[in-house]
């Protein structure tokens, strides 16, 4: 069945209150918060809802809903200016999971690395192939931040090296590192679903014995590696810079992404005391920051 979606522009202070009003007073079936500038938000602390400075609130309704009445209710709530902006759209009902699967194709990174959906045929059996089913965790290779990290890993000599994937998500970077020759890889993530996805994907690729995964509170003491990759976001990369830097052995290498072009220099400056930083690489406004520990 079709649906109606109403999009409102809000802000960090009122988005959650508006969302509650839409659910309780106007009969919205669901409410989604979407950054109006397409800037991601990192994992909130327990009990905390992190929103963006400019936030679009998307409310979904049955197609039979009276949008004039809903807009009148929104105005009556006085949570938005009288001349607030909104957009009403018809949303087609689809099998979204099937549509996403149909559009996720094998992708090549560098000269030899392929990321292949587990339900598609391998294009090059002689290449380094990572079979991936992301499940509920982030990381398919389609996002520029993941692509930047995969290209960096593909260009390294990982033979005999220990690698830490900090914020491992689906395990895509960790498994790629193993397939590219790493001796041992450790994945760390705050989300138990990510650890489950990483384990499942490692088993799918026959490398489960070379991958260890941990929640941060359970990781071994004095954990360190020759290579560390952290595809998270600018905020955590700055806040956790002492932790991330401590994971890299002297002379080891670090790559970070999840950083917008406008944020890259600021993030890099948190690491310059301990690292010789390479030229920053950009892909569709997203950046990779890499360097070698002094």
Automatic annotation (TrEMBL):
Major location category of this protein: cytoplasm
Pfam families recorded: PrmA
UniProt-listed Enzyme Commission number(s): 2.1.1.-
**Subcellular location, record wording:** Cytoplasm
- Residues reported to bind S-adenosyl-L-methionine: 146, 167, 189, 231
Known Gene3D superfamilies for this protein? Answer: Vaccinia Virus protein VP39
Keywords assigned by UniProt? Cytoplasm, Methyltransferase, Ribonucleoprotein, Ribosomal protein, S-adenosyl-L-methionine, Transferase
Q: Cellular component per GO?
A: cytosol; ribosome
Task: List GO molecular-function terms, semicolon-separated.
Answer: protein-lysine N-methyltransferase activity
Which reactions appear under catalytic activity for this entry? L-lysyl-[protein] + 3 S-adenosyl-L-methionine = N(6),N(6),N(6)-trimethyl-L-lysyl-[protein] + 3 S-adenosyl-L-homocysteine + 3 H(+)
Annotated GO biological processes are: methylation
Per the record, the similarity remark reads: Belongs to the methyltransferase superfamily. PrmA family.
Protein purpose: Methylates ribosomal protein L11.
Which HAMAP family does the UniProt entry name for this protein? Methyltr_PrmA
**Name of this protein:** Ribosomal protein L11 methyltransferase
Task: Give the classification, highest ranks.
Answer: Bacteria, Pseudomonadati, Pseudomonadota, Gammaproteobacteria, Vibrionales
Encoded by which gene? prmA
